[in-house]
Amino acid sequence: MAQTVCVLLDEAATARLTALATDRSCPLKHILRARIVLLSGERLTVQEIARQAGVSRPAVWRWQQRYAEEGVEGLLRDKTRPPGKEPLPAGTVAQVLALTCSEPPGAVTHWTGRAVAEATGIALRSVQRIWQANRLQPHRIRTFKRSHDPAFAEKVEDVVGLYMDPPAHAVVLSLDEKSQIQALERTRPDLPVAPGHPAAQTHDYTRHGTTTLFAAFDVLHGTVIGRCMQRHRHGEFIRFLNAVEAAVPTGKVIHAILDNYATHKHPKVRAWLARHPRWTFHFTPTSASWLNAVEGFFSALTRRRLRRGTFTGVVDLQAAIKRYIAEHNSRARPFTWTKPAAQIVSAVARLP
């Protein structure tokens, strides 16, 4: 493309183009086109017009030609473009969906995009678009665990009832322990995040021992009482219960939600429970520790503090956990459970 027209502007055209080029409410493309034509009317070279307008020389030639043919109105319209590829037939889309949700041939476990593209005779990108439109992700897999507790429904109603309608003048605590937290020290300092590069750390490390975090999550306030101990036997659990007993104000009834770990049902723990009548234990169904609210705190602790952390020893690890708990408590919010027990029971009943 080369310059084939000479732009001549009269007063009316100049006034309209100037108003268009200075109108900040107009689309940017219209402002640029008006500036190109105005500069062309000043008899500047194409190279100079392109430099001042911040466009390419072919763009200058294009809009000079458009103005010569259609005037100012031509600058405000985009020419229609020829249509792209025709959409895939509905039968092809249905074939892709059916293949993706079926068992693949041979010894493989799932369909890949290239395998589906080869089987259907379409492009890989077309397969990916169909998957995206139908929210299919065959490369991912989620795990689930069904509880076979005969009292599953009763225990779910008990625990969820404490979350959604806690008793008056009572404290609802979710108790558990996160064991075998390793104090890992990376052999080299971590590399910070940079444009185009994620944060990086060495795959090798030095082990400095482990610790166990006992935690009690206050459902009503969102705060956490935590103690780090070397082991997680019934003796350590009783020590932690004593610490919680001292932290909860007197006169408050304590409802504790726990999983079915053997330590929580040890005879000495039951004896301690008998000596403290304001405590009541509520056990989650077997294979349903996800019902324990403190697991959400453990997940956040792992993701935000432990997984990428580097620690020079167990003491350093325990100090980091204590600092995280203190920061969590400073911005704690009440825990909110939204799904009723009936929905949970019905959802679990649908599992194979």
Structure explained in plain terms:
The chain has helices at 11-22, 28-41, 46-53, 57-70, 72-75, 90-100, 113-120, 124-133, 152-164, 234-247, 267-275, 294-306, 314-330, 341-349; strands spanning 170-186, 205-218, 224-229, 253-258, 279-283. The radius of gyration is 34 Å and the shape is elongated. Helix 1 (11-22) runs antiparallel to helix 2, helix 2 (28-41) packs across helix 4 (57-70) and helix 7 (113-120) packs across helix 8 (124-133). A five-stranded mixed sheet has the order 3-2-1-4-5. It is an alpha/beta fold and 352 residues long. The mean pLDDT is 90. Helix 11 links the parallel strand 4 and strand 5 (279-283). It folds into three domains: 11-75, Arc Repressor Mutant, subunit A (Orthogonal Bundle); 90-133; 152-190 and 202-349, Ribonuclease H-like superfamily/Ribonuclease H (Nucleotidyltransferase, domain 5), CATH 3.30.420.10. The longest helix is centred in the C-terminal third of the chain and has 17 residues, at 314-330. It starts with 10 loop residues before the first helix and ends with a helix.
